[in-house]
Amino acid sequence: LRRAPRGVRLMASTTEKPKKKEKEVSVYKDTVILPQTKFDQRANAIKREPELQEFWRTERIYQSLYEDESKTETFTLHDGPPY
To answer: What are 4-31's pLDDT values in tens digits?
Structure first.
């Protein structure tokens, strides 16, 4: 025989199934104003990520970021008091 861990109460199994709760109608549903957009609400990353990577590759976006960086002056952010 196994003992139940401390603080755990064993319940006798019943043959009755628990009653399902009826869905409650939310009174706040109509008060939330959400914008209507053309894009999906989900990120859909599994499908979109290869498309985005291909776009970056064909438009040479990553390379152009580094090409433009060489032409600019360097910027140093001094965070905090001088020591």
So the answer is: 666 656 555 556 666 666 677 777 878 8
4 close to 10: Cβ distance less than 8 angstroms = yes
Side-chain-side CA neighbours of residue 77 (13 Å)? 1
Q: Give tens-digit pLDDT for 53-71.
A: 999 999 998 888 777 676 7
HEC readout, the chain: CCCCCCCCCCCCCCCCCCCCCCCCCCCCHHHCCCCCCCCCCCCCHHHHHHHHHHHHHHHCHHHHHHHHHHHCCCCCCCCCCCC
